[in-house]
Design brief:
The protein contains 8 helices and 2 strands. It is mainly alpha-helical.
């Protein structure tokens, strides 16, 4: 989604949790990690991640979905700090990835230009040449 507000529910820690990185959380994330969301995502995918790329993505994702900051911190410390980091890389990728591109089933907004291009009437009105059906008949 354009505002980065896409949510994702993931099996994590001791259950299923909802994660969301809105613009507020993305700004905090890039400040804490010293990189923008796409750079952080790339580091996670390419194996060039920093510890905070994982920790902060998960913590802020929980907070962005509505969890109290103290509970998000406690869970993240328990299930990221006290666990092998590699376990949480796929989750961090999913959380930041959905914030960047939105959910798969989220349709892209149509622009007026796109709609005009599909309209046969708009094509004939904007063009000096006759529509294709008239060319065939001539």
């Amino acid at each position: 989604m354009a505002d980065g507000s896409a949510r994702v529910t993931l099996a994590w820690a001791d259950g299923e949790y909802e994660f969301r990185l809105g613009l507020k959380e993305l700004r905090i994330l890039q400040e804490k990690c010293g990189a923008g969301p796409l750079a952080i995502y790339r580091r996670l995918v390419e194996g060039k991640w920093l510890v905070d790329d994982i920790f902060e993505t998960i913590r802020l994702g929980l907070m962005g979905a509505g969890m109290e900051p103290s509970k998000a911190l406690k869970l993240t410390e328990q299930y990221v700090v006290d666990r092998p980091l590699i376990e949480n890389i796929p989750r961090a990728q999913a959380i930041i990835g959905i914030a960047i591109v939105g959910p798969e089933d989220d349709p892209l907004p149509k622009s007026k230009a796109t709609e005009d291009q599909k309209s046969p009437q708009a094509q004939t009105e904007s063009s000096l040449s006759p529509p294709s059906t008239e060319r065939v008949l001539q």
